[in-house]
Design a protein that fits this description.
The protein is mainly alpha-helical. The protein has one domain: Glycoprotein, Type 4 Pilin (2-Layer Sandwich), CATH 3.30.700. A 3-stranded antiparallel sheet has the order 1-2-3, with helices on one face. It is elongated. It starts with a helix and ends in a 7-residue tail after the last strand. The model has no long low-confidence stretch (mean pLDDT 85).
């Protein structure tokens, strides 16, 4: 009887908990995109432009050979997104603004719904 009750509890509570984990990963990715946005803006103030696509987000951590670089602009190395994939960055210009910064979500592919939805700098009020 105890095993049946435990099985029912896991069946009812488990999906809710797993849904929260997915929401937490999305919230963390959004927060990182916002943090990168602030660091990119500081970089631009110092250097006069955003890092190129070729320099990427690593330019926030170590000087890519440009004058007036006054970093590092991040305290630690550029992290991967919540699902272990690198963030995508395109600049000068991006397709949606001065730069584009995004995570492709849990599926690691463009588009998607739910946890697989992309986290986009141009949809989060970054610019």
């Amino acid at each position: 009887m105890v095993i049946i009750v435990l099985g029912l509890l896991v069946g009812l509570v488990g999906p809710r908990l797993f849904g929260r984990v997915g929401q937490s990963k999305q919230a963390a990715a959004r927060a990182q995109v916002e943090l990168f946005g602030a660091a990119l803006d500081q970089y631009r103030l110092d250097v006069g432009s955003y890092p190129t696509t070729a320099h990427g987000l690593e330019a926030l951590q170590k000087n890519p050979g440009v004058q007036s670089w006054n970093g590092p602009y991040l305290k630690k190395a550029v992290p991967k997104d919540s699902w272990g994939n690198p963030y995508k960055y395109r600049c000068c210009p991006g397709q949606h603004g001065e730069y584009d910064l995004w995570s492709e979500g849990a599926d690691g592919a463009p588009g998607g719904d739910g946890e697989a939805a992309d986290i986009l700098s141009w949809d989060s009020g970054q610019k």
